[in-house]
Specification:
Layout (H helix, E strand, L loop, with lengths): L2 H9 L41 H5 E2 L2 E2 L21 E2 L8 E6 L2 E9 L6 E8 L5 E8 L17 E3 L3 E5 L1 E3 L2 E8 L6 E8 L4 E3 L6 E4 L14 H14 L7 H20 L4 H26 L4 H14 L7 H20 L4 H8 L4 H10 L41 H13 L2 E10 L2 E10 L2 E8 L6 E4 L21 E3 L2 E5 L1 E5 L4 E11 L5 E8 L2 E3 L6 E4 L16 H14 L3 H18 L1 H15 L13 H21 L4 H11 L7 H15 L5 H12 L4 H14 L4 H10 L4 H6 L15 H19 L4 H9 L1 E3 L8 E3 L9 H10 L6 H19 L6 H21 L9 H18 L4 H18 L5 H38 L3 H5 L1 H7 L2 H19 L5 E5 L3 E10 L7 E12 L8 E8 L8 H8 L3 E5 L2 H9 L4 E6 L4 E5 L34 E2 L10 H9 L7 E2 L3 E4 L3 H7 L4 H15 L5 H9 L6 H13 L10 H16 L4 H9 L9 E7 L5 E6 L10 E8 ...
Parallel strand pairs: 3-14, 29-30, 30-31, 31-32, 36-48
Antiparallel strand pairs: 1-2, 4-5, 5-6, 6-11, 7-9, 7-12, 8-9, 10-11, 12-13, 12-14, 15-16, 16-17, 17-22, 18-20, 18-23, 19-20, 21-22, 23-24, 23-25, 26-27, 28-32, 29-33, 33-34, 35-37, 37-38, 38-44, 39-40, 39-47, 40-41, 41-42, 43-46, 44-45, 47-48
């Protein structure tokens, strides 16, 4: 954002007849004072866009009347004399001017016939007979027009603000006489309206004005010197006590001063007499000021600046308003004057106050022209949890919406015609005809094109039509193409519609069929004629495009609000006419989107973003007024604002929609786009060439491109008319020469300004940019701020202007905060600027959560602040090149805070932010583990961004693909739709910052580029895959190194794989990690993207891998050089067959732990029973019972389950034939099993006797839950992973039996897994363990993120060594409940690791809780962490000693107590 533009926003003068530079020596150069007449306190919050002329000419007692020439003949707003009409009875004609073509306006003024007032005669020649005078009187005592009681006949009151009087017709002239008798009225103002053409006539862009002065001394206003008016205004201001005036009051006061002088002249005084009187007064003031200045001049200005700076520092560097700045400088001057009065000399004062770097600091402030402006705001302390947006997560699917209306008879009729035709449908069009419809289809078969038109209009209808070889052309159709009965005209043809009845019940349809053949026509313009009335398309011709072409197959629309998207596609031809049409259609569809839920709003967003990215046509053969676009935007944004309040879960996507639409105009800002370009051309003598072409485009249909064009012109002027600057700005914003030529009103020419035009054009174009941005730029910061704080736009020479009131209820310090932002918007050091942006967003946030009339203005401001955070962050990358990790981390906190402020369901982001803040505290306190902790927060933040990206893709991409296909959007734009949406937000900036920090943290924490999970030396051919899951059932015929982007943790490793290398972060003790070690497969995580990219580039090549404890060394080898000693996982080309012994039902449905044997239960149950009573007393073992082997088979054979047994038999046969979809069917069928009464009774008795609670005591529903969990455990025998795993080792699946271990769930604070021999290094003297918050399923299941990991020497349990902090965002927690664990006879077999293949199912569903590690004592309390980790290590060692072999142990921690829930031999 250029400084010129910014300065223009805040300080644009409302009056420019003279220099605006304040040169007063009374105030020091350090004072930045906007105006003598400051806004009153009631107007606080309104940006003052004016430096009033009065305040720039005199202040206090120092009157400065410049001697520059006064610009006459043009209205300069507020204080500049207008080209007004003086009442001069000596001449009946006071003024005449050309209105339009040969039309002339004549105005005569004389005293009324009664001699008590004035008579104004207005005559307009050679013009319409439908003229109206829009008028009112001007009184300097009030702002609005005075409406006199004496009015011409036929006068009507208009909105209580003006009068409208009709002209009478006399030949070719229009006449009107007005009598003014009210002495309060000093002038008459008016516009002329031609009602027939809806055309206004103005005076050089302003109101016509007639000044009314006493008869005996009437004189033109221009003859009253402007300097005398200024002095008189000053005297009035002084007489009234030097009040603080608003801009409106300033205007009134200035004009009142003029009126006083005019009245004085009317009473007989001459201008010379008035000058002598006022100049004498001026001399008095000047003398008085001279004395003051003489006294004050003893104090050098630089000392006043320094003293004021010292006062400011002592006050805590507040952000002073201009009023406060003035007071501060005067107080500083008084303090120094007091020192002088005591006898101190200026030199003595200088020595006293000029110390250290104070003078340098003040100089820097002065260089920046920012006085008493904080260089860094003081951010408020806030509880980050106040930012929380948390809504119920719903599955992403279209809600049941209000069904669309049934197809009309016209739709049915055309559908039948299309099917009967059999050709390809090239185009479908829909046009509204008030409450009726007109539909069109264009088909093509064997080179012949047909157009079918149908409507439900009742009255007889004629098609007045032509053909076009280029858009906009009307060519008479050849007689061979016209339907029978057609009448050829000049450049057109008329054809009668045919009436018929269609549908059930029969409805009247008028239709027409035209066959074009193979002629070279591109379209068909037409209008309709009915009962003598012409019917047009919203004022323009209808148009049928022949060259649209068939649409690509859009698919089934799964995952979208399909019906809504179909409707959008149907209406697109109408939407292409103009932004007005598109926004009006979108407004009509908002209600539908609400009913469709999140996917409905996603559809609207996709459509609007396709529009904003220029993938859709913006304007097609339609002329629309800017104010109509503005009004349509207003309507749409109002609806979106209301939805934002009513549908909190969808606020994020509603913000995204708003950002694509633009704000729309208030007042008449839309029409200003059209009017102001004319004034710019006229004022700057640039009515031809490129400016005229742009003017024609703006009049035809303004668009967001105009913002870019305007900026390109500004850059061209600023570059001293370097045309390359113009094209650079256009091209960098996506506007090419071809695009300029594609507009309906094409821009062919380049700008070619003269040097004498530069200053005026630059001023006017920068002002014009405000109007363009006000309509088109929802995310523009300057206009968004002005819209919220209020402004009056009355630029030089422009139209009446726009006044926007401040949004009510803004925090008192908010305007100052926004001023700080605008002052620092171009700072190279962006960190303080980012703080200011975020502080503003934080202050704004509470207002965005409640309803108010101006909510959308606040939303657009928030969107603009959000956008500026992204821009500033990208600008600040360069400053981070040599920055330390702490600075990068702080940047990350700022960008992450911004993302959290813009996101729904932002709980994970907030906990990431808290984590970064904790990492910064650790770093500042020199905690040795700060980098290790920061790395875990970085990993979690990446996961959060990944989840957000996946959610965007899930919600947006299907709609982009379906709608993009329907609308014919470029395929590349569809494919990258979600990616580009993400890039437009803070997430992309945050990701780049994380990438910068990652290698720094890894280096600081000595993490290296790899984590070695299974250190196997091997060699193989590189294969790159996206997900390990997608190839887990594949079998490779040669040794294969898989480079997999995604590894979740539960996958199987494919046959033939010798290594898996991934950037993903599965836990060291996850299923896939255990599998890799068991199968002697090299498995490692690569953290360095450069290394990973190099590995991917070697796809198909043979590599040798040599892992160390912290690295993987790889190199290319030639075919045949595979070393015999290296592992290939393919030694004999096949896996050994493993034999299972099928277990039999023992006659018991449930048994106690004391009865566990190998014939009844698996190793999991037996190991728990073995531990009971043998482990140390401080180690807890949960009470257990079991449903032994054979119970499932017994239940299945029960007569009550015969139907399920038959189904299973059939499905198993399908499975044996290779139909693997039967696996899911089998699992679903098993859930239909009924529990035999004896099973229920035995399980109840066994559980109660063991001391466990009986589930059924809590109600029948609780037993139903338990029984469902048992069936799910049995059904997991047929999950895909387990089934394919048994096939791989040739294990007879029918012989696999499943017992169920029943345990009471310990509601854990933490869960852990221990390997008593370090699996990564094979060091048997070292225990390796991982810990997660909540239940252990997040550790052994495929939950993203890393667990806390540590190692501990068995020789020193008091010194556990932390390897990594946790990054898992989710913790699982559950009420007091029962868990049913799988316990098969296929686990822990020699040569086959079956553990973890089957499911353990809790009776109750776990709650997924987003984890806040910043308040977790395991991370924040070193003593607590040391105690827990030492106890876990001791527990692992004790169990290993009990078994005498390395163990794989699972357990939990509850209130500091360690519990072991299962153990097995470590594989």
């Amino acid at each position: 954002m250029s400084n010129t533009v910014r300065h223009g926003l805040l300080h644009q003068s409302l009056c420019r007849p003279t220099s605006l530079e304040h040169q007063s020596k009374t105030s020091s150069p350090g004072v930045s004072i906007n105006a003598l007449f400051q806004a009153s306190p009631a107007k606080q919050g309104t940006i003052q866009l004016s430096k009033t002329l009065i305040c720039t000419k005199f202040r206090e007692n120092n009157l400065k009347v410049p001697k520059t020439d006064i610009i006459k003949g043009r209205r300069m707003v507020s204080v500049v004399p207008r080209a007004v009409l003086a009442t001069d009875p000596a001449s009946e004609l006071s003024r005449k001017c050309i209105l339009d073509g040969n039309s002339e306006l004549k105005i005569g003024v004389s005293t009324s016939t009664q001699g008590m007032g004035f008579q104004i005669d207005i005559q307009v020649t050679n013009i319409s007979d439908s003229l109206v005078l829009h008028w009112g009187g001007v009184s300097y005592e009030q702002k609005s027009w005075v409406l006199p009681s004496c009015q011409p006949d036929g006068t009507k009151l208009y909105k209580n603000r003006a009068l409208r009087s009709p002209f009478s017709k006399s030949g070719s002239d229009s006449l009107l006489k007005i009598e003014i008798n009210d002495p309060k009225i000093q002038a008459l103002e008016f516009l002329i309206l031609d009602e027939a053409r809806n055309k206004w006539f103005k005076d050089d862009g302003d109101n016509f004005r007639v000044q009314l002065v006493g008869r005996d001394k009437q004189i033109a206003v221009e003859s009253v010197p402007e300097d005398l008016v200024q002095i008189q205004a000053y005297l009035r201001w002084e007489r009234k006590g030097k009040q603080m005036y608003s801009p409106e009051q300033e205007k009134v006061e200035y004009e009142a001063a003029r009126a006083e002088l005019l009245d004085e002249i009317a009473r007989g005084a001459s201008v010379e007499q008035i000058r002598a009187r006022l100049t004498k007064s001026d001399d008095k003031f000047a003398t008085k000021d001279s004395n003051v200045s003489k006294s004050k001049s003893k104090i050098p200005d630089d000392l006043v600046q320094i003293q004021a700076y010292i006062r400011w520092e002592k006050a805590g560097k507040p952000n002073y308003s201009p009023d406060q700045q003035l007071k501060e400088f005067e107080e500083a001057r008084k303090e120094l004057q007091a020192e002088l009065d005591k006898g101190s000399s200026p030199e003595e004062i200088r020595k006293k106050i000029v110390k250290g770097e104070i003078q340098t600091k003040v100089s820097k402030q002065l260089e920046k022209k920012r006085y008493f402006t904080v260089e860094r705001i003081q951010r408020k302390e806030r509880d980050l949890m106040q930012l929380l947006n948390k809504y119920t997560t719903e599955s992403v699917k279209e809600k049941v919406s209000v069904p669309p209306q049934s197809p009309t008879a016209v739709e049915f009729f055309l559908k039948a015609k299309g099917e009967q035709d059999g050709g390809t449908i090239l185009n479908k069009l829909f046009f509204k005809l008030v409450d009726k419809e007109l539909r069109v289809i264009v088909t093509k078969l064997s080179g012949r094109m047909k157009i079918y038109l149908a409507t439900d209009l009742k009255s007889p209808l004629v098609l007045h039509w032509a053909l076009s070889r280029k858009a906009g052309e009307w060519v008479t159709p050849p007689p061979s193409l016209t339907p029978q009965g057609s009448v050829s005209l000049d450049k057109a043809c008329e054809t009668q519609f045919t009436e018929s009845y269609y549908g059930e019940p029969p409805c009247q349809v008028q239709s027409l069929e035209i066959e074009i053949g193979e002629e070279n026509f591109v379209g068909m313009p037409f209008v309709l004629l009915s009962d003598g009335n012409w019917i047009k398309n919203n004022g323009s011709d209808f148009y049928i495009d022949f060259v649209v072409g068939p649409k690509k197959d859009a698919g089934d629309g799964k995952g979208t609000a399909k019906a809504l998207l179909d409707k959008i596609a149907e209406m697109e031809s109408e939407a292409q006419k103009s932004f007005m049409h598109r926004f009006n259609i979108a407004s009509d569809l908002v209600a539908w989107a609400k009913d469709a839920g999140e996917l409905g709003f996603a559809g609207i967003f996709v459509w609007m973003r396709f529009m904003a990215s220029r993938q859709l046509i913006w304007n097609k053969n339609y002329n629309v007024k800017p104010r109509e676009i503005s009004k349509a935007q207003d309507t749409l944004t109002d609806l979106l604002q209301n939805a934002y309040i009513s549908y909190p879960p969808y606020r994020e996507i509603l913000r995204m929609i708003l950002s694509t639409v633009g704000r729309g105009g208030e007042g008449d800002v839309g029409q200003r786009i059209r009017d102001e370009i004319l004034v710019i051309q006229r004022n700057n003598d640039c009515k031809g060439g490129m400016m005229e072409e742009w003017h024609q485009k703006l009049h035809n249909n303004t668009s967001p491109d105009d913002v870019v064009i305007c900026q390109a012109l500004i850059d061209y002027i600023k570059s001293d008319l370097d045309i390359s600057a113009y094209w650079n700005t256009l091209n960098s914003n996506g506007i090419t020469k071809e695009r300029l030529l594609s507009y309906d009103r094409a821009i062919h020419s380049e700008p070619n300004f003269r040097r004498d035009q530069k200053d005026g054009l630059l001023r006017d174009l920068e002002q014009y940019m405000r109007s363009l941005k006000a309509v088109h730029s929802g995310a523009d910061l300057e206009s968004a701020i002005a819209n919220c704080l209020g402004y009056r736009a009355q630029g030089q020479g422009f139209m009446v202007g726009v006044q926007i009131n401040p949004v009510p209820g803004l925090p008192s310090q908010f305007p100052g905060l926004l001023q700080y932002i605008l002052d620092h918007v171009e700072d190279k050091n962006v960190e303080p600027f980012l703080e200011g942006l975020l502080e503003a967003r934080e202050e704004l946030r509470p207002l965005l959560l409640k309803s108010c009339d101006r909510l959308k203005d606040l939303l657009f401001l928030d969107i603009a602040l959000d956008s500026m955070v992204r821009t500033a962050t990208e600008r600040g990358y360069e400053t981070l090149n040599d920055a330390g990790p702490e600075k990068i981390m702080y940047f990350i906190t700022l960008v992450l805070e911004n993302l959290a402020l813009s996101s729904d369901n932002n709980e994970d982001l907030i906990y990431c932010l808290k984590g970064w803040n904790h990492a910064l505290r650790m770093s500042s306190s020199r905690d040795g583990d700060w980098a290790l902790y920061a790395k875990s927060v970085l990993d979690r933040t990446r996961l959060a961004l990944s989840s957000k990206a996946e959610l965007y893709h899930q919600i947006l991409q299907p709609s982009a693909e379906y709608l993009g296909s329907l609308l014919g959007v470029d395929q590349w734009a569809v494919e990258i739709f979600t990616e580009e949406t993400i890039r437009a937000g803070s997430a992309a900036s945050l990701s780049q910052l994380l990438n910068r920090l990652d290698p720094v943290l890894r280096k600081t924490a000595n993490l290296g580029s790899w984590q070695i999970i299974s250190p196997i030396e091997t060699a193989g051919y590189v294969v790159v895959v996206d997900q390990l899951l997608s190839v887990q059932n594949k079998s490779y015929g040669q040794p294969t190194i898989l480079v997999a982007k995604v590894v979740k943790g539960e996958e199987e490793i494919p046959d033939g794989t010798v290594a898996v290398l991934t950037p993903d972060m599965p836990d060291v003790l996850s299923h896939v990690s255990v599998r890799a070690r068991n199968c002697k497969v090299c498995f490692a995580t690569c953290f360095d993207p450069n290394i990973l990219s190099d590995l991917q580039s070697k796809e198909g090549k043979l590599l040798s891998l040599k892992p160390t404890s912290v690295d993987v060394v790889y190199s290319e080898v030639k075919d045949g050089e595979l070393r015999k000693g290296s592992s290939t996982n393919m030694e004999d080309g096949s896996s050994p067959s493993i034999t299972l012994v099928k277990k039999q039902f023992c006659g018991r449905y449930a048994i106690l732990s004391e009865e566990f044997t190998s014939e009844m239960v698996g190793a999991k149950s037996r190991n728990i029973a073995y531990l009971k009573g043998k482990v140390p007393s401080w180690l807890g073992i949960p009470t257990s019972v079991a449903l032994p082997f054979g119970v499932f088979e017994k239940v299945l054979s029960d007569s009550s389950n015969q139907a399920v047994a038959d189904t299973l038999q059939s499905l198993k046969k399908q499975l044996g034939e290779g139909d693997f979809s039967a696996l899911g069917e089998i699992r679903r069928a098993m859930l239909q099993l009924v529990a035999p009464p004896q099973l229920v009774q035995e399980l109840k008795s066994t559980m109660l006797s063991s001391g466990m609670p009986w589930l059924g005591d809590e109600g029948e529903q609780r037993w139903d839950q338990a029984w469902m969990a048992i069936k799910k455990v049995w059904a997991s025998k047929w999950n895909e992973r387990a089934y394919f795993s048994t096939r791989k080792v040739k294990l007879d699946h029918d012989y696999l039996c499943m017992a169920v271990l029943v345990q009471e769930i310990i509601n854990a604070d933490y869960a852990f897994v221990v390997h008593t021999t370090n699996p990564s290094s094979g060091d048997s003297s070292e225990i390796y363990a991982e810990v997660v918050k909540g239940l252990g399923e997040t550790l052994v299941g495929a939950y993203p993120g890393r667990a806390l990991s540590f190692v501990c020497k068995k020789s020193d349990f008091n010194s556990p060594k932390l390897l990594g902090y946790p990054s898992k965002p989710i913790g699982l927690f559950i009420r007091r409940s029962i868990i049913f664990r799988s316990d098969s006879n296929g686990e822990d077999l020699e040569g086959y690791a079956g553990a973890g293949l089957y499911d353990s199912v809790p009776m109750d569903e776990e709650d997924e809780i987003v984890v806040d590690y910043s308040s977790d004592p395991l991370l924040t309390d070193g003593n607590f962490r040391h105690s827990i980790l030492s106890s876990i290590a001791r527990a692992g060692s004790a169990i290993e000693e009990l078994y005498g072999t390395p163990q794989d142990i699972e357990g939990v921690v509850r209130d500091g107590q360690i519990y072991v829930v299962q153990t097995r031999p470590q594989m």
